[in-house]
């Protein structure tokens, strides 16, 4: 049985006081929660502070990005080994904001995936379609292409122990969210697409939903059989709202 994961992507938000206060609130809210993995991805500047604040906690440290290089003259970048050294485990790659603002290609993201696997870290591979692609009926085509970049370069086994986050771009930060039925249909497609290569790998891979997940719609989303938690944006910046989402995931998969 798959173990759901709820991960908070803090994006470009935070300061030292916020990190301290938010983690303190999360520890209190989630102290007794079982049956759901929990991770947070603060900005890289605050990873060390966050890791120290998470000591003896069930909450796992994550990060928002990684470079394909392990060392060298790459100003401003952060390597997989550095993230591992500081205690991060779940690393977000392929987020639509990276694809859009930094022009990251499917092939480049697949290289990041490989680097993380080699380092023993867990890639959280974000995939999803734009509103125009959705309206044109290309959702499955886009998701398949983004997954195939990894499948074709590394094989289905690369998804063992990995995480996929389906995030329809039209739902990120917009207040819109795919209906539970819409999200489930895409999650089912993603799992079946990987199953064409390896059914066992497809069955165990965690597929999160992301895109305006909040404390009000989480329970309905998690009731779907192929939705294994969530990658949460704005709601992850509020301890009480994030805790409701985590508890909903734990309850749905109990």
UniProtKB/TrEMBL annotation:
<dbReference type="GO" id="GO:0004807">
    <property type="term" value="F:triose-phosphate isomerase activity"/>
</dbReference>
<dbReference type="GO" id="GO:0046166">
    <property type="term" value="P:glyceraldehyde-3-phosphate biosynthetic process"/>
</dbReference>
<keyword id="KW-0324">Glycolysis</keyword>
<dbReference type="InterPro" id="IPR035990">
    <property type="entry name" value="TIM_sf"/>
</dbReference>
<comment type="similarity">
    <text>Belongs to the triosephosphate isomerase family.</text>
</comment>
<comment type="function">
    <text>Involved in the gluconeogenesis. Catalyzes stereospecifically the conversion of dihydroxyacetone phosphate (DHAP) to D-glyceraldehyde-3-phosphate (G3P).</text>
</comment>
<feature type="binding site">
    <location>
        <position position="212"/>
    </location>
    <ligand>
        <name>substrate</name>
    </ligand>
</feature>
<protein>
    <recommendedName>
        <fullName>Triosephosphate isomerase</fullName>
        <ecNumber>5.3.1.1</ecNumber>
    </recommendedName>
</protein>
<keyword id="KW-0312">Gluconeogenesis</keyword>
<dbReference type="GO" id="GO:0006096">
    <property type="term" value="P:glycolytic process"/>
</dbReference>
<keyword id="KW-0963">Cytoplasm</keyword>
<feature type="binding site">
    <location>
        <begin position="9"/>
        <end position="11"/>
    </location>
    <ligand>
        <name>substrate</name>
    </ligand>
</feature>
<feature type="active site" description="Proton acceptor">
    <location>
        <position position="167"/>
    </location>
</feature>
<dbReference type="GO" id="GO:0005829">
    <property type="term" value="C:cytosol"/>
</dbReference>
<feature type="binding site">
    <location>
        <begin position="233"/>
        <end position="234"/>
    </location>
    <ligand>
        <name>substrate</name>
    </ligand>
</feature>
<comment type="subunit">
    <text>Homodimer.</text>
</comment>
<dbReference type="InterPro" id="IPR020861">
    <property type="entry name" value="Triosephosphate_isomerase_AS"/>
</dbReference>
<feature type="active site" description="Electrophile">
    <location>
        <position position="95"/>
    </location>
</feature>
<keyword id="KW-0413">Isomerase</keyword>
<comment type="pathway">
    <text>Carbohydrate degradation; glycolysis; D-glyceraldehyde 3-phosphate from glycerone phosphate: step 1/1.</text>
</comment>
<dbReference type="InterPro" id="IPR000652">
    <property type="entry name" value="Triosephosphate_isomerase"/>
</dbReference>
<comment type="pathway">
    <text>Carbohydrate metabolism; erythritol degradation.</text>
</comment>
<dbReference type="GO" id="GO:0019563">
    <property type="term" value="P:glycerol catabolic process"/>
</dbReference>
<feature type="binding site">
    <location>
        <position position="173"/>
    </location>
    <ligand>
        <name>substrate</name>
    </ligand>
</feature>
<dbReference type="InterPro" id="IPR013785">
    <property type="entry name" value="Aldolase_TIM"/>
</dbReference>
<dbReference type="GO" id="GO:0006094">
    <property type="term" value="P:gluconeogenesis"/>
</dbReference>
<dbReference type="InterPro" id="IPR022896">
    <property type="entry name" value="TrioseP_Isoase_bac/euk"/>
</dbReference>
<dbReference type="Pfam" id="PF00121">
    <property type="entry name" value="TIM"/>
</dbReference>
């Amino acid at each position: 049985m798959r173990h759901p994961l709820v991960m908070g992507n803090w994006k470009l938000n935070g300061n030292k006081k916020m990190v301290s206060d938010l983690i303190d609130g999360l520890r209190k809210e989630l102290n007794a929660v079982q049956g759901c993995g929990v991770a947070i991805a603060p900005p890289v500047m605050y990873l060390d502070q966050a890791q120290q604040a998470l000591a003896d906690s069930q909450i796992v440290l994550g990060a928002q990005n990684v470079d394909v290089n392990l060392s060298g003259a790459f100003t401003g970048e952060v390597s997989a080994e550095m993230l591992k050294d500081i205690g991060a485990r779940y690393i977000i790659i392929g987020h639509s904001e990276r694809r859009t603002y930094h022009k990251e290609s499917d092939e480049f993201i697949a290289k990041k995936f490989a680097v993380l696997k080699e380092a023993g870290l867990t890639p959280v591979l974000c995939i999803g379609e734009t509103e125009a692609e959705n309206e044109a009926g290309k959702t499955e085509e886009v998701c398949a292409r983004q997954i195939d970049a990894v499948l074709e370069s590394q094989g289905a086994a690369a998804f063992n122990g990995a995480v996929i986050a389906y995030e329809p771009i039209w739902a990120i930060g917009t207040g819109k969210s795919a209906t539970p039925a819409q999200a489930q249909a895409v999650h089912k497609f993603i799992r079946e697409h990987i199953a064409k290569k390896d059914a066992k790998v497809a069955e165990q891979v965690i597929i999160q939903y992301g895109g305006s997940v909040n404390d009000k719609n989480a329970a309905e989303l998690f009731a779907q059989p192929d939705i294994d938690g969530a990658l949460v944006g704005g709601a992850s910046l509020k301890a009480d709202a994030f805790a409701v989402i985590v508890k909903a995931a734990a309850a749905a998969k109990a």
